Automatic annotation (TrEMBL):
Organism this protein belongs to: Shewanella psychropiezotolerans
InterPro entries: DauR-like, DauR-like_HTH, YheO
Protein name: YheO domain protein
Record domain YheO-like: where: 21-129
Pfam family, one: HTH_22
Residue ranges of every copy of the Transcriptional regulator DauR-like HTH domain listed in the record: 164-221
Amino acid sequence: MSPVIYRSFIAEYTNEDREFLNSYFRLAETIADFIGPHCEVVIHSFESLEKSVVKIVNGHHTGRKVGSPITDVGLKMLREFEQSGEVTPKCYFTNSKDGDQLKSTTCVLAGKNNKPVGLFCINMNLSHPFPEIIKTLMPDVATRTGIVSENFSSNATDVIEQALKHAIQKIENDQSVNLKSKNKQITKVLLENGLFELKDATAMVANRLGITRHAIYKYIREFKS
C-alpha cells in the first residue's frame, strides 16, 4: 500500500474506530476457546499497517504478537474492499513460516458508514496429529469436564419447561433440602440461572409448583436482598 493511503488511514482513525475493534476482542477469545488450542484468532487494525495486530490468541502458531504487521493477504483484501465495498469471506489454505499448514479465513471489519477499520482472522493449524486436534473438540467423559446441559429450542415456553424440570430434579436429589423449602430452593436455582428474565417464567413456575406468583416474587425479593 502506498504511503499516501497509509497516512490517510492514520488521520481518519478515531476513538470510535478503536472501540469498535475492541468490541471484537472477547469474540476472538471465545472462538479460540471454542475451537481449541490449535486455533489462532487475530484482529488487525488499519490504524497502523506496520503494527496492525491489536489482538491475538494462540499467536505461537504463526509466531506473531500484538504489534506485528499486516499480511500481504490482508493488504489485498483491504484494497479489494476499497474498490468494491464488499469482500465475501472465503476459506483458504496457507503455510506458516515454520511450514505448518493452516486453514484460514479473513473478513474485513467495517464500522460506521461501511468504513474499513480492521480484519478478523482465524487460522487453524492442520499440521498437528489429527487425533490430537479431535481430542480438543471432544468432552472429557471421564471427568465430565465441559459437559453442560443446554436446551436448544425454537420457543421460550420449552426453554422455561426444561429449565424448571432440571431445577426440580436438582433439588429433589439434594438430600439437604427439606420438603418445606423445596419450592423456595427451586426458585433460587431458576433465579441464579436467569430464567425469570423470560416474561412468562413466573406464571409457569408458579403453576408448576402449585404456588402463587406472589410467593415467587417474595422468594425473589428475599434472595436479592
